[in-house]
Design a protein that fits this description.
By secondary structure, this protein is mostly helical. The chain is built from 4 helices and 2 strands. Helix 3 runs antiparallel to helix 4. The longest helix is centred in the C-terminal third of the chain and has 34 residues.
Length: about 120
């Protein structure tokens, strides 16, 4: 005979945990689960599109690799190096923004006892 656990496993969470959680917590958890079930999150695709559009605009402004600048900047111009720095700042800015979003996302899900998958990366 096996031991009788106090929690009954339901999916990734437990029934006992769900019974202990209030209605607001359950509603928030369901909202997170629905949000995570989307295959193509529009806001993430929008940010990716915005990242590439910004990089393309900066590239057209500075020119390079056989293409002249649309505003006449040469490789010896100070503005060329400003635009190169701007490309790095633009990309790093997106990386920092999404890193912070990932940490906040994990923390907000932990607050409502989100049923993380065993292979989920938990950012902290």
């Amino acid at each position: 005979e096996g031991s009788n656990d106090s929690k009954i496993s339901v999916g990734y969470g437990s029934l006992a945990q769900e019974l202990d959680d209030g209605p607001e917590t359950l509603a928030q958890r369901r909202e997170f689960l629905e949000d995570d079930s989307r295959q193509y999150p529009r806001e993430k695709l929008f940010y990716l599109f915005l990242l590439w559009i910004g990089l393309a605009i900066i590239t057209f402004l500075k020119g390079g690799k056989g293409v002249d600048s649309v505003i006449g900047i040469t490789c010896s111009s100070g503005w060329y190096f400003v635009l190169i720095a701007l490309q790095f700042l633009w990309t790093i800015g997106f990386a920092v923004m999404f890193g912070l979003k990932a940490v906040n996302r994990t923390e907000s899900r932990k607050m409502v006892n989100y049923p993380f998958h065993q292979n989920d990366v938990l950012w902290n």
